[in-house]
Amino acid sequence: MNFINGAQLLEYCEKENKKISEAMFERETTFLEQDGEKTRARMKKAFSIMQAAVKKPLKEDIVSMGGMIGGESKKLHALREQGKNICGDVVSKAIAYAVGVLEVNASMGLIVAAPTAGSSGVIPGTLCALQEQYGFTDDEICQALFNAAAIGYLITRNATTAGAEGGCQAEVGSASAMAASAAVELFGGTPRQCMDAASFAMVNILGLVCDPIGGLVENPCQNRNAMGASNALISAELSLAGVKSITPIDETIGVMYAVGRSIPSELRETSLGGMAVAKSACENCMACANKRNKMKK
Amino acid sequence: MNEIGTFDILGPNMIGPSSSHTAGALRIAFVAGRMVERAVSVKFVLYGSFARTYHGHGTDRALVGGILGYHPDDERIRDSFEHAKEAGLAFSFEENFTDKEIYPNTVDIYVTDKDGSVVSLRGKSIGGGNAVITRLNGVDVELTGNYCTLVVEHVDKKGTLAFVTTVLSAYDLNIGSLRLYRESKGKRAYAIIEVDTNVSNQVVSALKGVESVTNVLVVPAIQLD
To answer: What are the ACT domain coordinates in residue numbering (chain B) (predicted)?
Structure first.
């Protein structure tokens, strides 16, 4: 069994009465001829890496390689524990976990690129918060991750998840769409509702540029992962409530791709525009400071 | 085109912060490290974005980790400089800003073996933790490390390939792809052969027995997860 776009996936799910995660798993074991048990074991390993990555910044003091981030997850947890958070427990946890994974990533810790290293906080942030809050088992979350992978596959196959090609909307936007769809499946939504949630998430981030300060995966990447996680939850809730997307997911992905290609190259991971050239950003970036020191020498 | 699977999307499992600058860089050095018996020193020349941001991306630590044989998800990568010192591996980095035509994430690696011989290769990191070796000891090649790869160095001479493939067939090895590269007519040449299964020492000895074969290197398939 194979599918190459959202329409085919949806048709299969509706005809066979299957969830998106089940269809993706089936594609893996039939079309790609992967062993079913090994595939499940690999997913378990990926999720255990995600779980470890959300917890690590709470136990350790982390400073990133570029020196621009570290300690943000702890601050967010402290705020929530003091009862001073604004967002409510699920969103507060999701954003705290998402920024934490970026701390781990930026300090050369172990993460799962999901779909990329720069957007690696969104999916663990969203799903670990949902698990903690609503008591989903590891197996349920692993199953939902196949749903997320299906959306990521559709995007990769028909557009891009590379910031250099499509801007941050292609990285954090894709991660957010994947997380939104997985969340809808966890809460019993239909495949169509999953895809609508993915569309909402993607459209909400449409046009977002990729402008890493000093070329490093730190700032503004970290906060955008928090945004991606909260956006996933918003999008899932909209869809579960019965709000319908005006575009099917294939169209949404096409729009994202077209927008990505029309973003000037200065704003696609080259660090020649956006936040990367803001005066204060450059002054606080170690990469630029090192360069300045070298020039002085 | 390779079909995209679940773990191409949720993966690779890797040490951050960047699949191209960290995992991909490591992959290139991993290949370089496997081409010698025991590396005693290594020099890296970094180009483009690698040269500009290698410290903040941990590209330097990933490269050293690759020589040491670490996989992209090995948590020792962060402290690879210390591990290299313990293992008696000297390393140095150079930045090249003058060569602007080159692919942005490129590195040249010069590895010195314990017997003093030097292997040089050039690799480019192409995104998502993937990499391609584009030059080997001065000869242009293309090698991904996705499969177990035999690098058969020989003198460019009629019939060599026939002997080589006969040996592979005798040892029941299936060839996935095969490319020939040479410096010039009658000079040093390479056969880069991807095979489906791992290659034993007997195969290597048998290949070394072929007249006009001067060296045989085995690059094991690199499993990212």
So the answer is: 149-221
Q: Angle formed by the axes of helices A168-186 and A122-134, to 10°?
A: 20
Domain shared by B103 and B184, yes or no = no
Number of domains, chain B: 2
Predicted confidence (pLDDT) at residue A297 exceeds the cutoff of 60: no
Q: Are residues B73 and B161 in the same domain?
A: no
Parallel/antiparallel/unpaired status of strands B175-182 and B188-195: antiparallel
The tally of domains found in chain A comes to 1
pLDDT per position as a tens digit, B126-149: 888 889 999 988 888 888 878 888
Q: Give residue A143's pLDDT band: very low, low, confident or very high (50, 70, 90).
A: very high
- Nearest residue on chain A to B4, alpha-carbon basis: A153
Contact A227, A180 (CB under 8 A): no
CB-CB contact of A157 with B8 (8 Å): no
Encoding tokens for residue A216? 């490093």
Q: Out of B7, B12, B17, whose CB is closest to A105?
A: B17
Judged by CB atoms closer than 8 Å, whether chains meet at A215 and B55 is answered as no
CATH number of A199's domain? 1.10.4100
CB atoms B56 and A66 under 8 Å: yes
Predicted complex ipTM: 0.94
Contacts of B10 in chain A (CB under 8 A): 43, 46, 112-115, 123, 145, 148-149, 152
Phi-psi label, residue B11: left if phi above 0, alpha if psi -120 to 50, beta otherwise: left
The answer to whether the Cβ–Cβ distance between A214 and B53 falls below 8 Å is yes
- Together in a domain, B110 and B133: yes
- Residue A1 domain-assigned? no
Running DSSP on this structure, what letter comes out for residue A210?
B
- In chain B, which residues have their Cβ closer than 8 Å to the Cβ of A49? 13, 73
Which residues in chain A are contacts of B9 at CB distance < 8 A?
114-115, 148-149, 152-153, 156, 161, 178
Q: Residues A87-115: pLDDT tens digits?
A: 999 999 999 999 999 999 999 999 999 99
**pLDDT 10s digits, B58-106:** 999 999 999 999 999 999 999 999 999 999 999 999 999 998 888 889 9
Q: Is B16 in contact with A66 (Cβ distance < 8 A)?
A: no
DSSP conformation class of A268: B
Q: How many CA atoms lie within 13 A of A3 on its CB side?
A: 23
| Look-up of token digits 């390779």 | B2
Residue B164 sits in the same domain as residue B94: no
Q: CB A107 to CB B78 under 8 A?
A: yes
Question: Range of B45's domain?
Answer: 12-137
Question: Does residue A179 belong to the interface with chain B, where contact is any CB pair within 8 Å?
Answer: no
Distance from the A46 Cα atom to the nearest Cα atom in chain B, whole angstroms: 7
Question: In this structure, are B107 and B208 located in the same domain?
Answer: no
Q: Is residue A79 part of a domain?
A: yes
On whether any CB of chain B is under 8 Å from the CB of A31, the answer is yes
